[in-house]
Amino acid sequence: MFGHGQIEGFAEKYGMEYRRAYWDEQPDPYLVERHEREIFPLLRRRYLFAEVANFLLYDLVAPEGYVNEDVFAYSNRAGEERALVIYHNRYAEARGWLRTSAAYAVKTGRGDEKVLVQKSLGEGLALHNDENAFTIFRDHVSGLEYIRNNRELFERGLYVELAAYKYHVFLDFREVWDDAEQHYARLTAQLGGRGVPSIEEALTEVVWKPVREPFADLVNAEMFR
User: Fold this and answer.
1) Which letter does DSSP use for residue 87 in this model?
2) From the CB of residue 7, how many other CB atoms can be counted at a distance below 10 Å?
């Protein structure tokens, strides 16, 4: 939901009975640009956030073992598309693992009886629990792509670090399977959790590294001299 003047950054507050604005305010270009860049693209995919059948909340567990209540995280799915949203609602630093969803009630089929159920992040995102499978996803905020091993997402979850009031909106999840040379495993280890503009381009560097390094040793300025 958007309030009147929210996108433009207007300060005047008035209700439906007002026929016109009383203050002469001009739109804030910075706020309008941020809405166009960060919010409007998500509105075009609102089907991915609107339904509740696959909606799950997650706790961020700090390395010290406590749940950080200032971090709100949830995943949702629509068909084969997935989304994971993480927001830090405090002026502080936050870090930890998103591994298990908050418990929710599920009917057992015996009358009104219900049981509490929790799912791992891997289950919430409907991924394959396979050590040879890797998941690539993109951060809508930064535009960077990330890669994680599926088995790690099931067993350990996703490690995140957030500065004050920062957030991630992870989209465009896709699964890939490693080859005999374990190129995806090597790339994942090489990146160490970092994001890159393109995973496929980074993978190309890994594939051609055995050729490029000897070639660089052979063909260089010192050798020509």
Assistant:
1) E
2) 17
List CB contacts of 159: < 8 A, sequence separation 6 or more. Answer: 95, 96, 97, 193
The rounded distance, in Å, linking the Cα atoms of 8 and 28 is: 5
Residue 25: strand, helix, or coil: coil
Strand, helix or coil for residue 76: strand
Total Cβ atoms within 10 A of residue 102: 14
Give the predicted TM-score (pTM) of the model.
0.88
Q: Which amino acid is at 27?
A: P
- Per-residue tokens: 211: 């050729």
Say if residue 49's pLDDT is above 80.
yes
What is the 3-state secondary structure of 153-196?
Answer: HHHCCEEEEECCCCEEEEEEEEEEECCCCCHHHHHHHHHCCCCE
- Tokens representing 78 are 């629509």
Report the alpha-carbon distance of residue 183 to residue 178 in Å, rounded.
7
Instruction: Check pLDDT > 90 for residue 120.
Output: yes
